[in-house]
Amino acid sequence: MPGHQGFDHVIVGAGLSGLLLARRLLVAADAGRLPGDQRIALVGPAPDPVQRVTFAHWARRPTMLDDWSVGTWSDLLVVGHDGRARLVDLDGYRYTALSWDRARAALRERLLADPRVTAVAERVDAVGADADVAWAAVGGEHIRGQWGYDSRPPHVDPIAGDPPAVLHQSFRGVWVRTGAAAVDPSAATLLDFSADDGPDLGFAYVLPVDDRRAMVMAVRMGPSTDLPDPIPAVPRVVGAGGWSIEAEERGVTALPARPAARRARPRVLRIGARGGRVRPSTGYAVTRILGDTAAIVGSLARHGHPFAIPPDPRRDRALDAIWLAALARERADLEPAFLAMFRDVPVDRVLRFLDGGASARDVASVVAALPPGPFLGAALRLARERSHR
Length: 389
Ligand SMILES: Cc1cc2nc3c(=O)[nH]c(=O)nc-3n(C[C@H](O)[C@H](O)[C@H](O)COP(=O)(O)OP(=O)(O)OC[C@H]3O[C@@H](n4cnc5c(N)ncnc54)[C@H](O)[C@@H]3O)c2cc1C
Prior knowledge:
Layout: E1 7-12, H1 16-30, E2 40-43, E3 54-59, E4 69-73, E5 75-79, E6 85-89, E7 94-99, H2 100-112, E8 117-120, E9 126-130, E10 133-138, E11 141-150, E12 167-178, E13 188-192, E14 201-210, E15 213-222, H3 234-238, E16 243-255, E17 263-265, E18 268-270, H4 286-303, H5 314-329, H6 335-344, H7 347-355, H8 360-369, H9 372-388
Helix pairs in contact: 1-2, 1-4, 5-9, 7-8
The chain binds flavin-adenine dinucleotide.
Flavin-adenine dinucleotide binds at residues 12-18, 43-45, 55-57, 123-124, 151-153, 171, 249, 251, 253, 272-273, 278, 283-286.
């Protein structure tokens, strides 16, 4: 593969984390924080141009994804199994839905127009490093660079137990349109437990972008990869009138029991889901990936390498492990935990807790609000399994 050597950065996977990292590297170079001639190889298949993808996240400040916002809210609804809704004021945060398919196309176009970026639209067979060079193997050739970043989907360890479980978060959503104004766009719904009674933890979220259009997404967390059905959650959003489906979104992510180490090889950093940036207990990743790419660029600017990034607090990892162990066994009991969080804890604490990186006080107030039953059982089981290892 002549010409594919001597990059500064070899980014494997051109999804959310890969594209955001490439963009941030160039912005930092243009601003003089990194040398201006950053040469980047972006290696991975081009996305399906038709598949619609909408991500939601919360933020207090503007982010580099705001240009592709399709809706933003300062209040959220949380709806219990009994249909009772609680309105939560986000206290300075904004919850934003972004069109990732449009953002992805625009980011790719910008990156590919930059002479510092070489796109290789191929799958990578392996990622590795020699003493002073990282590489991505494509069809028997190596693309080499000073630093490698790996965002291929992660390998997933099962949760210990009998039988061991691999847990997934499965999504299926519909964009619905009503003929007359029937949708209330003033608040998005973060969690609606009223329309799901499967054996797994299931809920819907709703992104009402105007008075006739909303995305209704059903989510299921558990061992199954079967896609949930969003249709039962639609009537609460559109009322009794007619509606039609404009588009559908779907996907499955695995929730790793133990995230892999961030540093894969001396010169390779795992990023995105592979680097543990999808919070296993919530499935949220956008805020974490935005923060992570900023930290990587900061590390390069200050230390000349990408590894001086904040580690995940041990307490977050412990809480994720307990949550996943409870999800593997006591899924039905977890709905009250989500509801209690939004009822009893200040919302800024809950949002920091859900994203990861919350302070000890944030965590303490969330833990104090959780019903102890399923979590104590899961914590005891984990402790027992560890002592048997
Ligand atoms: C349906 C769905 C809805 C979600 N909604 C939200 C949400 O609302 N809010 C939120 O915060 N998070 C959400 N997430 C979670 C998270 O934001 C996404 O999973 C996010 O895409 C993770 O980014 P990533 O870069 O790790 O992975 P991806 O964006 O999936 O990128 C990985 C890339 O690697 C490429 N690749 C795979 N194999 C290879 C290979 N062998 N060689 C080279 N490249 C390869 C893929 O083609 C892909 O482009 C959602 C996830 C799904 C699936």
